[in-house]
Amino acid sequence: MLENAGLVQIEKRYAGRRGRTWVRPTDVGDTALAEEIAPPALLIARVETTHTLQDW
Questions:
Q1: What's the CA gap between 23 and 10, in Å, rounded?
Q2: Is 20 left (phi over 0), alpha (psi -120 to 50) or beta?
Q3: How far apart, in Å, are the Cα atoms of 25 and each of 1, 30, 39, 50?
Q4: How far apart are CA 12 and CA 34, in angstroms?
Q5: Gap between the Cα atoms of 29 and 6, Å rounded
Q6: Burial class of residue 26, CB neighbours in 10 A (0-12, 13-18, 19+)
Q7: CB 3.0-4.6 Å disulfide test: which of 2, 31, 33, 47 passes with 7?
Q8: Rounded to an integer, what distance in angstroms lies between the CA atom of residue 56 and that of residue 48?
Q9: What's the pTM?
């Protein structure tokens, strides 16, 4: 599904007799991941700067 959406590139090869699969994000995938991670990261940063362990 991620490959069909253009978010990752999948490469399958053999190393000896064992199959290996490499998954790499595309530029579009990198951008989508950054957009997905940004809101929780901002929330965590806000909590870390406004509260100390003593507040909890």
A1: 5
A2: beta
A3: 13, 6, 20, 34
A4: 26
A5: 7
A6: middle
A7: 2
A8: 12
A9: 0.65
- 């069909």: which residue's tokens? 4
pLDDT digits (tens, 9 = 90+) for 8-25: 999 999 989 999 999 999
Positive or negative torsion for Cα 36, 38, 43, 47? positive
- Residue 13's nearest CA partner among 4, 3, 23 is 23
DSSP structure string for 1-56? -TTTTTSEEEEEEEETTEEEEEEEE-HHHHHHHHHHHHHHHHHHHHHHHH--GGG-
